[in-house]
Amino acid sequence: MTETLASLASEGDTAQTDRVVARPAWHALKRAVEAIRPAQSKDGSVDFAAEGAPTCSQLTREIDHAVAAIQELAPLLPHDAAYHRALVADLRRWADEGFGVPDFLDSLLAFHPEKTRADGRQHLVVFPMYTQNGNPDRNLEAVVLRVVWPGWLARLERERFDNPMFVGVTFEDFTPGYDTNSAVLFPETIAVREAPERFSWGGIFCDREAARFRRVIGAACDVTSLRLPDDAAGLLTDQDRCQQTFVLWDMIHDRTHSHGDLPFDPFMIKQRQPFWMYGLEELRCDLTAFHEAGRLAAEGYAQGRDVQYAVLLDRLFRFPVTGARVRNYDGLGGQLLFAYLHQHDALRWTDNRLTVDWDLARRVTARLREEIETLYRQGIDRPKLVHWFKAYELVARHLAPHPGSTWAKGPDALDLSLPPRKLVDEVLPDEFPLSLFYEALGKKLRKVIESTRGITATAPAASAA
After folding, report:
1. Quick one: how far is CA 450 from the chain centroid?
2. Residues 422-453: pLDDT tens digits?
């Protein structure tokens, strides 16, 4: 049945309206956490012999303040009652045992945001953890978040894109570990004595992704003189619409990691392989989201078309020039998409102006997805090393490898008596360097990208039309 996303929006649950971050107890909790964080080592423990370190009794008082604040705020969040009880116990045990390497497994196992997905529902989360693309140390962090789960999204997940682990969220407030580029809350980042057999949830901050998209893509359009269609330009001026776009994109992308003609070992399991394999996997998931979004658009879902614009623009502009060049697999995927579209005349850079044939771009993007899907399907019958080489050939057909690359010279240049994981050492940190176009674009966008650190939904409207 054809129905628009807007027609289902009223079905969302906005049960929680009393903002945790407006309470004095939240600010007391932040102060306590921010007093503890500087004393922690990389693994989350506290070295009291270090110069300038606080005493154990001082940190214990801060734990007491944190516990009191959590207990005061907990009644606002009855759906998290079991988690908050376990959290208080984990904090007190950490203090009682002298602030060694923290172990918050009990509270992690008690936290289940995926079981109570309701639009607008708040969660108060405190864990010792690193923040992906943010702080690499397992510091104590506190974050208040709000679930994005409108009725239209719940229905699509239930009927078409089953993803029971996925939780779309927005920031309410956070401690310094999230004043970074991190846009996820993943259980595997949390300090525990042993990893659970399986994780049951994963949170992605669609407000940060949307705000970052609006600012960077707006600047990129200005720099390249790209004129967007009116329906795409609206994404850059409407934060809520952009958030809705990203939560749909993320939900489909996330489930794709376990769907399709995959190698025997799912790509989300940590394994050592060349970074272009991760790049192709992430791109495959985005192109699947692009494909499914096209089907939704054809059925009358306006946000399907928004996802298609977002995938193309974010992949083409932001991904290739964000972050370091060392094994930057997301950047590689963006470079590949740009080159593929350019080589098939879907986009042109002429007279210092970028133009895109959007209808052709959709058709050409579908062809790239088909090439990657074929690679995967055939890879099931190939040895691992042969699969890696075939993937390298796919990328190298469109992107020039580094002139010093050993892998670019083919199998004869490698010691094939070594196990595949050892041959990964021969991969250059930047196996496929940026093109002239992206080198110039990266310089133009560097300050804009840096300005998105810690960004949330308060980002100003983009200037591009």
Report:
1. 17
2. 999 999 999 999 999 999 999 999 999 999 99
What sign does the dihedral 283-284-287-293 (CA atoms) show?
negative
**Residues 262-288, mean pLDDT to the nearest whole number:** 82
Q: Which helix (H) or strand (E) holds 366?
A: helix 358-379
Residue 212 CA, chain-centre distance (Å), reads 12
Sheet containing strand 202-205, edge to edge, reads: 122-129, 139-147, 166-174, 202-205, 184-185
CA separation for the pair 129, 402 (Å, rounded): 36
Q: What is residue 465's predicted lDDT score, i.e. its pLDDT?
A: 39
Residue 293 pLDDT exceeds 90: yes
What is the CB-side half-sphere exposure of residue 284 using CA atoms within 13 A? 25
d(CA 403, CA 12): 54
The full DSSP string for 70-136 is HHHHGGG-GGGHHHHHHHHHHHHHHHHTTS-S---HHHHHH--GGGG--TT-EEEEEEEE--TTS--
Average pLDDT of the residues of the chain: 93
Which phi and psi angles does 239 have, rounded to 5°?
Answer: -65, -45
Say what the pLDDT of residue 11 is.
36
Which position has the token pair 């407000």?
A: 207
Q: Is 25 helix (H, G, I), strand (E, B) or coil?
A: helix
Phi and psi torsions of 338, nearest 5°:
-60, -50
Residue 333 CA to residue 328 CA, distance in Å, equals 9
The confidence score (pLDDT) of residue 242 equals: 97
At 409-423, the pLDDT tens digits run 999 999 999 999 999
pLDDT at 16 over 70: no
Quick one: tokens of 60? 């214990």
Q: What is the pLDDT of residue 264?
A: 61
Helix (H), strand (E) counts: the chain: 15, 7
Distance CA 72, CA 261 (A): 50
Sequence-separated (6 or more) residues with CB below 8 Å from residue 379: 263, 387, 390, 391
Backbone angles phi, psi at 225, to 5 degrees: 60, 30
Contact 276, 432 (CB under 8 A): yes
Q: pLDDT tens across 158-215, in order?
A: 999 999 999 999 999 999 999 999 999 999 999 999 999 889 999 999 999 999 999 9
